[in-house]
Amino acid sequence: MDRLGASGLAAALRGGVDCLQLRDRALEGAALLARADAARAVADAAPHPVRLLVNRRLDVARCAEADGVHLGFDALAPPEARRQLGERAWIGVSAHAPEEAAAAEGADYVHLAPVFDPLSKPASRPALGLDRLAEACALGKRVWAQGGIDASNAGAAVSAGADGVAVTGALSSAADPERAARALRAALDAHAA
């Protein structure tokens, strides 16, 4: 929420964002739970259902009544997270190559990144491109394309087989987050049909 603030986040949700991932490695314990509770309140006020996922912290996800967790490379394995959170929880993982996506047993989705050079931070690894995205999508897993995604290329990611996209920079740097989210939603919907 820091990058957008509560009002920017609410605007992005009005624009069609349907899933929030709370990721703030600087916060621990009560401060992270407070942030999760605030995000849950904004998500619950959205005009459509919005999933809330907490990065890495199963305890915070449970206390905030989040819909699930997103696990990084240093977190629990998806089957253990599922055992702790239950069958209804959404469990996601990060991957930086199709081979890593293939190894994501027990996850509901995989964030594959970076598909393009990130918009929100300097690139720390080469962009995978659409061919590698298509390779990961051919594995039969739900893949969300991440990294450098905006309205101009979100449709291409879906055409390559992605079930969705994960964005930071396209919304956090937008002067009008609602408008940016609407443009992303329109691009996704046009290519999904």
Could you describe the 3D structure shown?
The chain has a seven-stranded parallel beta sheet with strand order 1-2-3-4-5-6-7. β1, α2 and β2 (51-55) form a beta-alpha-beta unit. It has nine helices and seven strands, in the order αβαβαβαβαβαβαβαα. The protein has helices at residues 5-14, 29-44, 58-63, 78-85, 98-102, 129-137, 154-159, 169-172, 177-192; strands at 19-22, 51-55, 68-71, 90-95, 109-112, 143-146, 164-166. 41% of the residues lie in helices and 16% in strands. The radius of gyration is 16 Å and the shape is globular. With 193 residues, it is α/β, with parallel strands linked by helices.
Task: Characterize the main sheet.
Answer: 7 strands, parallel
Query: What series of H and E elements makes up the topology?
Result: HEHEHEHEHEHEHEHH
Q: Could you state the CATH homologous superfamily?
A: Aldolase class I
Shape: globular
**How many beta-strand elements?**
7
Calculate Rg over CA atoms. 16 Å
SS content category: alpha/beta
Instruction: Give the integer mean of the pLDDT values.
Output: 93
Please list the strands of the largest sheet in the order they lie side by side.
1-2-3-4-5-6-7
CATH architecture: Alpha-Beta Barrel
> Strand percentage, roughly?
15-25%
CATH class: Alpha Beta
What is the percent of helical residues? 40-55%
